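Progress report, Aim 2. The chain analyzed during this reporting quarter is listed below.
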Amino acid sequence: MPIHLHREIDRLKKNVLHLGAVVEENVFRAVKSIEDRDVKLAKKVLEVDAEIDKMEVEVEEDCLKILALNQPVAIDLRFLIAMLKLDNDLERIGDLAVNIAERSIYLANNPPTNVSFEYREMTRKTEAMLRKSLDALVNLNIELAREVCAADDEIDAIERKIVEQAQEAIKKYPDEADRLLHHMFVARHLERIADHATNIAEDVIYMVGGEIVRHRVVNYFQKHGRNRQ
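Predicted structure tokens for the chain:
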């Protein structure tokens, strides 16, 4: 790899990791604002999203500039394409954090429901998936990417459990239906964040191993003798 291209890609990696850290922190703030009924913290999420959008545009422009000026091939080209897709995934995750924060503001301005929801485990696991997917991309670590894909089913199971809990609560407390639906959609937003982390991991598996696993992850794990969680 030419030295100039190497330097440009290293700088891009640092910017993407910074963007990923800001997005991850905003997801944490959004969920915590619900647990603490903290409107101020939820509004902070909305403020930071403007910064995330700006960083996303900068990363995209950097990728396009490197592509235009260096005309990379092989793994360098696949890496930059993966960066562009990752950039979009991170921006979408930022939008989902905003969705959670907006539901948090609504819930904080209304009485608590009779049923409480435990998002902590789901949030911790989702954040770990996001962090691992970024590490996998930057370090081209295919094993780490596989761990992210394997964890997705676990998040799906937790989301189903929270949705079932909300549906049962709506039957028992129909006058709280609006607030309970907001809680149910928080779990749905977290599940979508985990899906975006899985998208990033699948891109890493393709980039390093040359195998497309998107839409057929189950077959991929059977082939490699691994079980999804």
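The radius of gyration is 19 Å. Residues 22 and 83 are 17 Å apart (CA to CA). These observations will guide the mutagenesis work planned for the next reporting period.
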